[in-house]
Amino acid sequence: MNVKLMKFLREEDGVTAIEYGLIAGLVAVAIIGGITLLGGKLQTLFAYIAGLLPTGA
Predict the structure, then answer these.
(1) 57 found inside a domain
(2) How many domains does the chain have?
(3) How far is CA 45 from CA 18, 30, 41, in A?
(4) Which InterPro entries match (predicted)?
C-alpha cells in the first residue's frame, strides 16, 4: 500500500488531473457567479421578449 501511494505521488498524471479539476471548478464558480449577478436582468429580458411574441391561435 505504501509503495503504491509513493508511486502515485511521484507520477505527473495525478497532478495534471488535479489541475484540470481545479480549473473546471473555478470555471464553474465563475459561471454560477455570473448567472447569479445577471439572473434577474435576464429574467426581465426574457419576460419582455415573451410578451412581444404573438400568442398561438
Answers:
(1) no
(2) 1
(3) 39, 22, 6
(4) Flp_Fap
Residues 42 and 48: beta-carbon distance below 8 Å: no
Query: What is the domain range of residue 29?
Result: 3-52
What predicted TM-score, i.e. pTM, was given to this entire model? 0.54
| Length of the chain in terms of residues written | 57
AA identity, residue 57 = A
Residue 28: per-residue pLDDT: 97
**CA atoms lying within 13 Å on the CB side of residue 32:** 6
Per residue in 11-38, pLDDT tens? Answer: 777 778 889 999 999 999 999 999 899 8
Does a structural domain hold residue 9? yes
pLDDT band at 47 (very low <50, low <70, confident <90, very high): very high
